[in-house]
Amino acid sequence: MPGIEDFAGKVAVVTGGASGIGYALAQRFLEEGMSVAIADVEQSALDSAVASLSAKGRVIGVPTDVRDIEAVENLARTALEQLGRVDVVCNNAGVETGGSFLSISESAWRWVMDVNFFGVLNGCRVFLPLLEANGGGHIVNTASVAAFNSGTATMTPYCASKFAVLGMSECLEVELRTAGSNVGVSLLAPGPVKTRMVDAERNRPQDVAQANEEGRVKVMERLAAVTAQSGLEPAVVADQVLEAIRNNTFFVLPHPDMATAGIQRRMDWMATGTPPPVRQAGS
Ligand SMILES: NC(=O)c1ccc[n+]([C@@H]2O[C@H](COP(=O)([O-])OP(=O)(O)OC[C@H]3O[C@@H](n4cnc5c(N)ncnc54)[C@H](O)[C@@H]3O)[C@@H](O)[C@H]2O)c1
Hints:
Layout: E1 11-15, H1 20-31, E2 35-40, H2 43-53, E3 59-63, H3 69-83, E4 88-91, H4 106-133, E5 137-142, H5 156-178, E6 183-188, H6 214-230, H7 234-247, E7 251-252, H8 256-272
Parallel strand pairs: 1-2, 1-4, 2-3, 4-5, 5-6, 6-7
Helix pairs in contact: 1-7, 3-4, 4-5
The structure holds nicotinamide-adenine-dinucleotide.
């Protein structure tokens, strides 16, 4: 199936659209003449994003916690009612917390898995039938190079959630392509991008303790420094996503070397039996 060639007049839904990569995706879609529904759990950021993006085209903000399937159903209903159709869905909202293995509480595990994995799954389950009924469309699920790289210090829940997004998205893509579906799937797996991800705990639910172990704090400080120095601009990532939708390409790899190095390390581990040493985030 070819991808979407003409974006003008079409409609995109972007979760986590109030900041970072999601905001850049919304902006890029508007520049192509699409209308956009941005969904986010952070109300003030959502309001500011809608206000600043409105100059570029028709955009609505829908307060949505992607962990809640009823909220995602409401997002779909609102997009259909106010924008008339849905063609592209970016399941992009994500969070990060962690620490040394036994310091990570069950509530922290559930928060990361609920947003990063079940949030993406909710988006696929709610929007896939709408896209199919609409004559076709495209789903973009945001993972990370963490989907290919295990053993990153203090980031075990994030890594597990992104492996899950990768596995689910690959299975969905293979199933839909084999069935001749009119819906394409892409997996976005970036390395460091200049966003507010290192400050993801700003959206931490009250029952999740702050991850402030000394080792964890150092990892986050290093990641923030690496991202500030050499991270990609979100707009560059958004351009790559647009091309993937246009060409119906599955893997969107803004940092291809980091993705393939992670796979290579695991292949070497399988071949030699020797696990690689702990990695630092962003390396
Ligand atoms: N920035 C990076 O270096 C990087 C690298 C790899 C992958 N990613 C992934 O990119 C995606 C976007 O993150 P970003 O880097 O733009 O960070 P960001 O923090 O700037 O944006 C994430 C957005 O998701 C929203 N969000 C958080 N929890 C939510 C929930 N429960 N429901 C709805 N919205 C929620 C936040 O309010 C925020 O607006 C994430 O999935 C992240 O894991 C980021």
